[in-house]
Design goal:
Order of helices and strands: HHHHHEHEHEHHHEEHEEHEEHHHEEEHH
GO molecular function, one term: alpha-1,2-mannosyltransferase activity
Strand content: 5-15%
GO biological process, one term: protein N-linked glycosylation
Bound molecules: guanosine-5'-diphosphate, magnesium ion
Shape: globular
Family: Belongs to the glycosyltransferase 15 family.
InterPro entries: Glyco_trans_15 (IPR002685), Nucleotide-diphossugar_trans (IPR029044)
Pfam families: Glyco_transf_15 (PF01793)
Radius of gyration: 27 Å
Number of helices: 17
Structural class: alpha/beta
CATH superfamily of the largest domain: Spore Coat Polysaccharide Biosynthesis Protein SpsA, Chain A
Number of domains: 2
Helix content: 25-40%
Length: about 450
């Protein structure tokens, strides 16, 4: 049989194979292109690893957290176990309607458009794309059309833009301009971060005492504060707002670090005066133990703070009598601490939560939310990730010195701020380690811990 006749003889079968092959190819192409189209239009899905969808990891209870005061009514870890599912909330309208009244809020300037777009894009991709909580922007100056259009474009959630009234932004009348300007010059000379900036004082004051009073937030119960140029490294497979609401938690943070004490020299003294004036406003479960030095200058504020550029909180706590009165005192003619010093909203919120919210049960360490603000960066270890993260794990004490370098003569707490907050076995040192000896030799005495990281 010639080659030709052989090929002719087999040609009908070959043709059958060919058409089968063609169909297989066409359908593969179709499947592939629809997948590609889907992942381009739904960027979140391409970030969702198999372990996120199939087997979400959940936070384990924090070993070492003091249990004596734990509120037995709630079990936040269990809540997370039951609600950490990337697909959980996509199933219907019911969850959408039952969302807490919550908003993502940002105080920002028109000039910071690029920075806020980057923050928004990451938080949308990592989380809000599935939840569609509104973005609410605030500024003392009108937002430009460019700012509005660009920010609207990054989210499918609603956006709104609000002016801050002058009486919430500018120094109150009782502030002496010359004394205020001396403080700007003084803190500027000392090199206290942004101590010379007039606008920074307004900002700290607004974030301490006024954001929660803005009419645009009147109908809301929870807020998540987002700044320009921050980063979110991890997918968040649950709703932190719902988490706070269901577990009756007032305040969520993810960094707890040392602040520059020169910016609020009299804050602790003024706070103690407030506690003396209004003892009834201090919560019976108030927990100041982690904030007050027990060694050296015993009884002084140790300058630890929830780093408030990341915070998720309960607006009703801030609108409550205790917090409002506390702010009024710090802002009063007697104190004027936002202008005569540079009281920051971070230490003010920290002290307020510690004093008036009711113990550690009322605050939550969102250690699974990877986040960066400027040089401070938190990235969870693989063991405590609740979703896929694109970052390298950072150490437990990593950010402690970000605002106050170790070399600074400022008195340091006995343990890093986060360890003090965690308490319990997080403070235990290895046998033979002597912090005093290390300090004498020029170290900081913050070594030798038995528990080095979360597991
Ligand atoms: N509208 C407005 N926003 C401000 C002003 N100053 C600071 N902010 C915002 O307030 C937040 C904190 O300010 P930032 O300079 O980042 O302070 P830092 O994080 O303490 O260094 C950011 O969201 C800023 O965009 C201001 O004068 N006007
Ligand atoms: Mg900032």
């Amino acid at each position: 049989m010639s080659k030709l006749s052989r090929s002719l003889k087999f040609s009908p079968r070959l043709n059958q194979h060919k058409s089968l092959l063609r169909w297989t190819l066409i359908s593969t192409c179709l499947i592939l292109s629809s997948y590609l189209l889907h992942s381009f239009t739904n960027p979140q899905d391409s970030l969702t690893s198999h372990h996120d969808t199939a087997q979400p990891r959940v936070l384990q209870p924090l070993p070492g957290l003091p249990t004596k005061k734990r509120n037995k009514k709630h079990d936040p870890e269990r809540w997370l176990a039951e609600h950490s599912d990337m697909t959980h909330y996509e199933t219907g309208q019911e969850w959408f309607n039952d969302r807490p009244k919550a908003a993502i809020i940002s105080l920002v300037r028109n000039e910071e458009l690029e920075g806020i777009l980057q923050s928004m894009w990451q938080l949308e991709r990592r989380w809000n794309r599935r939840y569609r909580y509104p973005w609410i922007f605030f500024s003392e100056r009108a937002f430009t059309e460019e700012f509005r259009a660009a920010t609207r474009n990054v989210t499918s959630a609603e956006t709104s833009y609000h002016l801050i009234p002058n009486q919430h932004w500018l120094p109150p009348e009782h502030i002496s301009t010359s004394r205020f300007h001396s403080s700007l010059a003084y803190l500027g000379t000392l090199g206290v971060g942004k101590g010379h900036l007039l606008s920074y004082r307004n900002m700290c004051r607004w974030n301490s005492g006024f954001f929660y009073l803005h009419p645009a937030l009147a109908e809301y119960d929870y807020y998540w504060r987002v700044e320009p140029d921050v980063h979110f490294f991890c997918n968040i497979p649950y709703d932190p707002f719902r988490f706070l609401r269901d577990n009756e938690i007032a305040y969520g943070f993810n960094m707890n670090i040392l602040d520059d004490a020169r910016s609020f020299a009299s804050l602790w003294r003024r706070t103690r005066e407030f506690m003396d004036m209004y003892p009834d406003l201090v919560h019976e479960d108030a927990d100041l133990e982690w904030l007050v030095d027990t060694y050296g200058n015993g009884g002084e504020y140790n300058n630890c703070q929830f780093f408030s550029n990341f915070e998720i909180g309960d607006l009703n706590f801030f609108r409550g009598k205790a917090n409002m009165k506390y702010f009024e005192w710090l802002d009063s003619e007697d104190v004027g601490g936002f202008y005569y010093e540079r009281f920051g909203d971070a230490p003010v919120h920290t002290l307020s939560v510690a004093l008036f919210a009711g113990g550690k049960d009322k605050a939550w360490y969102f250690r699974d939310i990877g986040y960066q603000h400027d040089i401070a960066r938190h990235c969870p270890r693989p063991e405590v990730r609740s979703g896929l993260c694109d970052c390298e794990a950072t150490g437990l004490d990593e950010n402690f010195y970000k605002l106050v370098p170790m070399e600074s003569p400022q008195r340091k707490p006995e343990d890093s701020c986060l360890r003090l907050w965690l308490g319990g076995e997080w403070l235990e040192k290895e046998d033979g380690y002597d912090a005093e000896v290390e300090r004498t030799l020029g170290g900081d005495g913050l070594r030798g811990y038995v528990r080095k990281e979360f597991e």
